[in-house]
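Summary for the funding panel

The consortium committed to producing paired sequence-structure records for every protein in the target list. Below we show the first two records in order, beginning with the earlier of the two.
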Amino acid sequence: MVGLWYPKGVTTPEERLRYYATKFGTVEVDSSFCAIPRRQYAEAWVKRTPDGFIFHVKAYGLMTGHEVDERMLAPELRDYAYDSTRGRVRHADPDMVDASFDLFLDAIEPLREAGKLGGILMQFPPYFTAKTAGEERRNLAYLEYMADKLDGYRTLVEFRHPSWVDERHLARTLRFLRERGLSYVSVDNPQFPGQTTMPSLSAATTDWAYLRMHGRNADTWFASTTTSADRFDYLYSGEELEEWVTPIKRLVGEADETFVMFNNNKYDYAQRNAAEIATILGDLVVPPPVDAGETPALF
């Protein structure tokens, strides 16, 4: 992606972020899922982007019930109790999870202070389900806890098991999120005959709507790939993007702000598709903010 999309001479992380911010007005930080970022990183992001630029930040894996790499644990978390299997942290003590929230929020505080923090993306694993009454009750209780820990923040909730939005659960899931000020994350991903992935449901439960385009590579969706980019190896066609025009316009009508984020991060596919859908949507798209003296360039 770096070689394909960035101009020659744009090589350092600082140069790349500054260039990116002339093309897009927002970015989703996903590296924070693997490890809690250092506070200095957020301070640097603030300095390298113009006023009005927005960072959405994906929550650390422990915050959403995922296993995480033991080697990537913050020093402050190492003394808590947890099971370790093949170098992965499992069954973390609730106090360890609680501390993860606190460390994560402290790390991204510079973004909040600068007015550049968008949403905190809580992407739950496929085994976070509502299949049984017991699972639904237990997981809703965790969402209540999460909402309390993230009170005052914009929280984006991405489910990865379709039980949350099946015919039996859809209305009450959306009502639960709406009543707690949690934003439902709409997704586009491969569809399978057994309905094992989330459907392409567009819904807004707060004044912010959020859509993540994961690509439709069915061959790699459940595969063990070398990198996440291999899993999301998919370039949307113009026709496939057109399928989302009406749902996006519906979201725009329901929310004050709507974000369409591309996670098909193989090569420069995400940037290419983002530019294409921006062209399709036309005047609905807000141009990126630029520093005084710079020439605006939307895409």
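The next record, for a separate protein in the list, is shown here:
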Amino acid sequence: MTARVVIFAKAPVRGSVKTRLARDIGADAALALYVRMLHGTVARLSAGDWRLCLSVTPDDSASTDDLWPDGTERVAQGSGDLGARMLRALAGARADAPVIVVGSDIPGLGAGQVGRALAALGQKPLVFGPAGDGGFYLVGAAAPPPAGLFAGVAWSTGSVLRDSLANCAPGSAALIDRLDDLDDLASLAAHRAAGRL
């Protein structure tokens, strides 16, 4: 099995990442934190028995080496909303080559969650990693997912996972560990208190 793990990432540019958090801690501090999380995610997920790559936005940033962790494979996310871009990343999934898509801002995410997601894909065609805010930090497929998987999903709301699961055939999706992303001062404090930053 040659699984592929795709980290979705924004180019680390001041003023364009962690904008909600930047209102409280400043754009420079938010950028530094984002870069730290991105590099940490790459380091933690590089240890697994899978192919790792970054799927980046904006598309032209893929060729700018100094924006990204050294030695990372990079591809452009392409056009469309988040759902369209994730569907594109998952489209090449097969039973012997599943694809896992993860975010770059989940300090608790490690190889263990990816391993559990891959194990789940041995039983079901889809897997999600629920996030504490009602979204998900991981989605994976063992076959090209249905075109309507993310139809009608209200992105950036507390119903993202629920909306996505409603588009799945009954019993077709597994859930793994719940983790929290980092978007605001409260989540920053929680991750620091847990020793993840």
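Regarding this second record: The CA atoms of residues 59 and 78 lie 6 Å apart. The chain has a mean pLDDT of 94.
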